[in-house]
Amino acid sequence: MSIAAEKDCTEIYRTGDNRIQLRFLALSVNEALARTMAAAFLSELNPTLEEIADVKTAVSEAVTNAVIHGYGMEEWDGPTQARRKSAWIHMECGLSDNVFEVSIEDKGCGIPDIKTAMQPLYTSRPELERSGMGFSFMEAFMDEVKVESTFGEGTMVQMKKKIGIVEQMEEE
Amino acid sequence: MKACKKNGQYLMIQMPEEIDHHQTVQIRQAADESILEDEVRDVIFDFGQTRMMDSSGIGIIMGRYRMISAFGGQVYIMNADTRIKKILFSAGIQKIAEFIN
């Protein structure tokens, strides 16, 4: 994993795809910035309001995870202080045909056990009133969610969603 | 912040258009002050303006429920649109809060 990896754009130009990269400090105020940016980038595909809200929610979850868990921004004297020297979050969005993809990457503490972390209702920070639904929501609102993490080095969440195909919502 | 409106026995919380972690930290602070100082019994979350919500919205409801249910208080949710309702139901919020419209 590498933040802001130099990519060869030749292939992107050839296929007519599009990409953006955004780098911002791990501050909770930037959660809104990140999802708004993703939504604006997505608008090229003429998404429905529902699809926009899906993407916004999923991006919001991933960025919040990076802020709270990756960099531990809620505890200023905690063990994560050293990581704040470079507390950047890197977001990259891409459009390819009618598929929107986004990756959100941090160089924070990493996830020791991804399987446990992704379980519904599991949270490592109950005292912060985290509901433990973050990954479940990402999976519910996007078509594909991939998590890569190295303990002590950082986490990358990659998500994909097909835009323009209205799926029948399951009524409960 | 005009998130909290107090009406006698209950506290009405006007939820913002987009609910995320950043927003809930501020709402939580204002709400808890009001709950403790004014000794309100019930809490009503008004989602009338809300168009987007992430799991932070679940956390804030569960947290207030824990606070007030110990003293016999009840959590109510009003004006939630289909999308918000779907999110709340997926986390089982209907088990701890009553939906009113």
Quick recap:
The complex is a heterodimer of chains A (172) and B (101). Chain A has five helices and five strands, in the order αβααββααββ. Chain A has helices spanning 10-15, 30-42, 49-70, 114-117, 134-141, and strands at 18-25, 88-96, 99-106, 144-150, 154-162.
Written description of the protein model:
The complex is a heterodimer of chains A (about 170) and B (about 100). By secondary structure, chain A is an alpha+beta fold. In chain A, about 30% of the residues lie in helices and about 25% in strands. Chain A contains five helices and five strands. A five-stranded antiparallel β-sheet of chain A has the order 1-2-3-5-4. In chain A, helix 2 runs antiparallel to helix 3 (about 50-70) and helix 3 runs antiparallel to helix 5 (about 135-140). Chain A is globular. The model of chain A has no long low-confidence stretch (mean pLDDT about 85). Chain B has about 100 residues and is an alpha/beta fold. Helices cover about 40% and strands about 25% of the residues of chain B. Chain B has helices at about 20-35, 55-70, 80-90, and strands at about 5, 10-15, 20, 40-45, 50-55, 75-80, 95-100. Chain B has a five-stranded mixed β-sheet. Chain B has a two-stranded parallel sheet with strand order 3-5. In chain B, strand 6 (about 75-80), helix 3 (about 80-90) and strand 7 form a beta-alpha-beta unit. Chain B is globular and about 30 Å long. Chain B starts with a strand and ends with a strand. The interface of A and B includes residues 60, 67, 132 and 169 of A.
Observed structural traits:
heterodimer, A: 172 residues, alpha+beta, five-stranded antiparallel beta sheet, 5 helices, globular, B: 101 residues, alpha/beta, five-stranded mixed beta sheet, two-stranded parallel ribbon, 3 helices, 7 strands, 40% helix, 26% strand
List the helices and strands and how they pair.
The complex is a heterodimer of chains A (172) and B (101).
Chain A: H1 10-15, E1 18-25, H2 30-42, H3 49-70, E2 88-96, E3 99-106, H4 114-117, H5 134-141, E4 144-150, E5 154-162
Antiparallel strand pairs in A: 1-2, 2-3, 3-5, 4-5
Helix pairs in contact in A: 2-3, 3-5
Chain B: E1 4-7, E2 10-14, E3 18-19, H1 21-37, E4 42-46, E5 52-53, H2 56-69, E6 75-78, H3 82-90, E7 97-100
Helix pairs in contact in B: 1-2
